[in-house]
Amino acid sequence: MNKEEILAKSRKENKNRDIAGMDINKNASRISLIFSLFFIMFLMTLTWIAGKHMNHGIIATEYSMIFPLFLYKAIKTKNPANIISAVIAGLCLIIFTVNTIRDIFDIYPLGR
Q1: Is 47 helix (H, G, I), strand (E, B) or coil?
Q2: pLDDT tens digits for the chain (112 residues)?
């Protein structure tokens, strides 16, 4: 293949795709995730300083965003690190969701 054929094939493959837009969306998602993690840490720190009961619903909400991200990456890449991250995020989501439900309905079998 010569240079022109390669360029034509590349243009055909990338038709109707905005590569710059895709990159902006990827970076925006990454920044959003990092910001939300730091915001959760900030709220957790304030709760701890105030001596109040931790709101597990906030943390469950964060993991409801993190888990699908890692799950999608694990499915697409089959990368062991992404698979492990997806499993850990999924377990955290389950744990914090169960704790949130327990808090909502005041279910504390072992006491508070």
Answers
A1: helix
A2: 788 887 777 777 766 667 777 788 788 888 888 898 898 889 889 988 998 888 889 889 989 988 998 899 899 999 999 899 999 999 999 999 999 999 889 887 776 6
